[in-house]
Amino acid sequence: MNTAAIRQGISYVTNSKGEKTAMQLDLTNNAVQEIVEDLIDTLDAMERKNEQTHSFEEIKNEILLSRGL
Asked: In terms of Cα–Cα distance, which of 27, 23, 32 is closest to 2?
């Protein structure tokens, strides 16, 4: 991933003291958009880390049963 392209799509908002208070992301910049999507995917995974898991076979059988196969 091109870090220069990512940096071009990031702007900081500062307060009157020059302190960074927020960040603006240019979502028309493909590199930035990919980073944001990765961040959202990571947050989703973190939220679901304690959910019960199921094996592929369990899910496959559930789908087949629901289709009457």
From this structure: 32
Q: What are the pLDDT digits (tens) for 55-64?
A: 999 999 999 9
**Euclidean distance between CA atoms 33 and 10, whole angstroms:** 11
What's the chain's Rg over C-alpha atoms? 21
**Which residue, chain included where needed, has tokens 């009457």?**
68
Residue 65's identity, in one-letter code, is L
pTM of the model: 0.64
**If you write DSSP's letter for every residue of 19-61 in order, what string do you get?**
-EEEEEE-TTSHHHHHHHHHHHHHHHHHHHTTSPP--HHHHHH
